[in-house]
Amino acid sequence: MNKLTINGEIDVAIVGGGPIGIETAIAFKQQGVRSILFEAAQIGEAISRWPPNTHFFSTPEHVALAGVPVQTLDQRPISGEEYLAYMRMLVEYFDIDLHNYEPVTGVDRDEGGFIVHTHKRGEERRYRARYVVFCTGGMAGPRKLGIPGEDLPHVTHYFPGPHAYFRTRLLVVGGKNSALESALRCWRAGSQVALSYRHSDFQWDVVKPHLAGDLKTRLEKDEIHFYPSTIPVEITNDAVFLAPTEDGVTPNGRITRHETDFVLLATGFQADQSLLRAAGIELTGADEVPVFNPNTMETNVPGIFVAGTAAGGTQAKFKLFISTTHAHVGKIVYAVTGHAPEKLGSVPARDSAVSWEEVKAN
Ligand SMILES: Cc1cc2nc3c(=O)[nH]c(=O)nc-3n(C[C@H](O)[C@H](O)[C@H](O)COP(=O)(O)OP(=O)(O)OC[C@H]3O[C@@H](n4cnc5c(N)ncnc54)[C@H](O)[C@@H]3O)c2cc1C
After folding, report:
1. What's the pLDDT band for 348 if we cut at 50, 70, 90?
2. Interval between CA 284 and ligand 1 midpoint (Å)
3. Among residues of the chain, what percentage have pLDDT more than 70?
4. Which of 41, 216, 236, 318 has its Cα between 20 and 30 A from that of 9?
5. Nearest residue CA, atom 6 of ligand 1?
6. Where are the beta strands (DSSP E) in the chain?
7. Measured in angstroms, how far is the CA atom of residue 308 from the centroid of ligand 1?
8. In this structure, which residue's CA is closest to atom 52 in ligand 1?
9. Which atom of ligand 1 is least distant from the CA of 181?
């Protein structure tokens, strides 16, 4: 019989080195709990895919981790690049046991806990952990449209920054903050920009006010051309075919051919919850929201917790982001150790604040 090789014995395996995975690792470290932070790629992988020089919408105090202030030169929201540097600093300062470029590939129940399977440079590894915390995020990959031409080289779901589109024609598909910001940045950088959105108008009361004001002016002056209530049905080397739609989903009516050099599909991202499902966690609805106790963040599998945006699955409307999920960390650390963590992000989450008395009572 094959003897099971165990590469490490730990109290907690934290899966995912995004902001909330790092905050969880720090909180456990401060309680003297042995944990490993597993990251499939590099810490902050989701943020490292942001276009260059993109700033958070949230103000610095909302994205501070473990109570360590985020300071910016102008007190405005921090950029993605600066935040990655801040995250590196936290991992160094708190001496987090980070296993980067080591994706977790499976979690099996074992006597007294779990066996966590990983891959490192082509080699399979196993760790024994008493608890597992999934902080795997909710933006694993783009929400694909499934139309012909979507995979052509001049079509992307990831905005590379405006420089690529200087003196070219760009069609941006989408109507949320990312689409609007990309369209405005590219127009300002010297691109001829058009916007296609599946609804008749933007949700002006929901999009960021500075983007809304700017875009309204550009549309009034037709500096950015707008195709309302349209969806792309096919992309070719030099054009996008846009169909009218009434319900935002079904093409219905006469198709317009829009000539363009590049296409940015800012149609959102979706979670990959396959690892959670394989671990026995029940997922609900089309968004694949894991089942968990909101007071402790423990899932239907005792000993496995979920934190950060992974707790929301693929969020159609964003309710979970960094500032609203700091509280997850405290609940998990309290559920595992019986002690409240020293500090979390400087702003407590509004929608999920639970007193330690309530957590204890559960
Ligand atoms: C342009 C843009 C602007 C944004 N602005 C804001 C903002 O202003 N405020 C805000 O709060 N949020 C903002 N967000 C969203 C923000 O990025 C997320 O809220 C945040 O990253 C969520 O943190 P997280 O730790 O839950 O997950 P993530 O940051 O998604 O981290 C999950 C990590 O898990 C890793 N992982 C996944 N599977 C595995 C596995 N099997 N094994 C090991 N590791 C794994 C991934 O590689 C990733 O590093 C913005 C997003 C975009 C795109």
Report:
1. very low
2. 21
3. 94
4. 41
5. 56
6. 8-15, 35-38, 98-99, 104-110, 113-120, 123-134, 141-142, 155-156, 169-173, 192-196, 225-227, 230-235, 239-244, 256-259, 262-265, 269-270, 283-284, 289-290, 304-306
7. 8
8. 50
9. 1
Q: What is the pLDDT of residue 5?
A: 82
Q: 294 is written with which tokens?
A: 């909101």
Binned at pLDDT 50, 70 and 90, residue 355 comes out as very low
The pTM (predicted TM-score) of the whole model is: 0.91
Mutate to test the pocket of ligand 1, among 272, 281, 309 (most ligand atoms within 8 A of CB): 309
Q: For ligand 1, what atom is nearest to the CA of residue 47?
A: 17
Give residue 3's pLDDT band: very low, low, confident or very high (50, 70, 90): low
Q: Residue 17: CB within 6 Å of ligand 1? A: yes
Domains of the chain, each with CATH number or no CATH = 8-140+269-361 (3.50.50.60), 144-265 (3.50.50.60)
DSSP string, 228-278: TTEEEEEE-SSEEEEEEBSSSSSB-SPPEEEE-SEEEE---EE---HHHHH
Mean pLDDT within 81-109: 98
Residue 308 Cβ inside 6 Å of ligand 1? The answer reads: yes
Mutate to test the pocket of ligand 1, among 39, 79, 82, 276 (most ligand atoms within 8 A of CB): 39
Neighbouring-strand partners of residue 242: 232, 256
Q: Is the CB of 312 under 6 A from ligand 1?
A: no
- For the Cβ of 18 lying below 6 angstroms from any atom of ligand 1, the answer is yes
> Could you identify the residue written with the tokens 């979920």?
306
353 — pLDDT class (breaks 50, 70, 90): very low
